[in-house]
Every structure is written in structure tokens, then in C-alpha cells.
Amino acid sequence: MSKVFNFGEKVEGYNIPVLNEREIRAAAGMLFLLMFISIMVVIFKGDFTPLKYAVILFLVDILVRVAINPKYSPTLILGRLIVANQTPEYVGAKQKKFAWIIGILLASIMFIHLIVMNAYSPITGIICMICLIFLFFEAVFGICLGCKFYSLVYKEKAQYCPGEVCDVKSRQEIQKTSAVQLLVVMLFAVFIFVSTFFFKETLTEKPYDIFGIESSTHTK
């Protein structure tokens, strides 16, 4: 029974339970896509049905991770299958558990609002955006925003963070950003602003059907 209800796995060379960051990022990417599409349906069609299902799936999945075992989380299982051929990147289980508890709190508020009360408000909108930001940073950058609060709450240093960000060390040469590179980013931002200003009419104009497919479909 203890093997079923457990959090983290023992790996040789690590003195605390760890999880595979690669499968966590894969799972975060899937949940982000699910939530993002559901929110877009609400925005453009006013249909909350996909979002309600997404909230239930999100809450159940993350509850399984914390209350039972991350090994039995459906999205983490899919993530494990997807990255099965990649070398594991181990991360401390403690801070992940704390981050996922935050996820449970957010998802529970969403569940009460959308499913139990069948209502929405600025609160649901804000929480949806917070969840998207958390999932996006995890999936794309490998940054666990929820884990950042672990050290603040427990007053102890997190161990085995993704990319070894917990360890104080000097950056390697390939990681350093020069003044020229920062200037390029700034010039790119200016380019986007100028392009939007001068070519606004062209960019917002609906493109025409070059092959006349749409018009021929309407005539039929």
C-alpha cells in the first residue's frame, strides 16, 4: 500500500525523493493546450462546456498526483510515454508537491465557481490566467513558479531544481547575454511597433480568396 500512496521516487545518487522534470513539462504542455483551447472557446463562442470539462480533468489529475501518487496521474503517464527516450532530468519532489497543492487550491476555486455554482466572475478569469501562466512557464521554460514560493514558506532551500537553478554558480559563456544582443531585442520590439503603426490598415484588412474557392462554394 505504501508503494501506491507515495510521492516521489528514490533514485541512486539522490538523497531525497525526486521526479522526472521532463515528463512534468510534457504534462504541463498538454494541460496548457487543454486549458488554452477551452478558454478560447469561451472567449470567441461563449461556450463554457469545454472549460468545465477541462477544470474537472485538471483538478482530478492534480489531486491524483498529490493525494495518491504522481506515478498514477494520467497526464504524467502520457508525458512519460512521450519522453521515454529522453534522459531523465531529476527534480526534488518536495517543491513540486507544494506547487501542485497551489494548483489544487486554484482548480478547486474554479470547480466551485463553474461546476458547483454554475457561475463565472472576474475571479474565474484571473485564476484561468494564473493557471495558464504557471503551465506555460513550466512547459516552455522549465520554470516552476509555484516552486519559487516553497523556500519562502518553509524557510529552507529547495534541492535539485530544473537546470540546477538552486545552486549558486557563475554562468557559462554560452549563457551570458551581451549588450549587442539586448540591443537586438529592443530594436525588434521597435520594429514590431513601427510595423503595426504604419501598416495597420494592410495588416487588419481581410485577405482575398486568390483561387475564388469561397465564392464558388457559395454559388453552389
Describe this structure in words.
The protein is an all-alpha fold and 220 residues long. It has helices at residues 21-45, 49-68, 74-82, 93-116, 122-141, 145-148, 150-154, 179-198, 200-204, 213-219; strands spanning 18-20, 90-92. A two-stranded antiparallel ribbon has the order 1-2. Helix 1 crosses helix 3 (74-82).
The quaternary state of the protein chains shown equals single chain
The tally of structural domains comes to 1
User: Which range does the strand content fall in?
Assistant: under 5%
Placed side by side, the strands forming the largest sheet appear as: 1-2
What is the residue-averaged pLDDT?
Answer: 87
Q: How would you sum up the major sheet?
A: 2 strands, antiparallel
Using the alpha-carbon principal axes, give the shape: globular
DSSP strand tally: 2
Number of discrete helical segments: 10
Structural class: mainly alpha
The CA-CA distance between the termini, in Å, is: 66 Å
What portion of residues is helical?
55-70%
Please state the CA-atom Rg, rounded to the nearest Å: 22 Å
Order of helices and strands: EHHHEHHHHHHH
**Unreliably modeled segments:** none
Question: Helices and strands in order, then pairings?
Answer:
Blueprint: E1 18-20, H1 21-45, H2 49-68, H3 74-82, E2 90-92, H4 93-116, H5 122-141, H6 145-148, H7 150-154, H8 179-198, H9 200-204, H10 213-219
Antiparallel strand pairs: 1-2
Summarize the structure.
With 220 residues, the chain is an all-alpha fold.
Keywords:
2 strands, 220 residues, single chain, 10 helices, two-stranded antiparallel ribbon
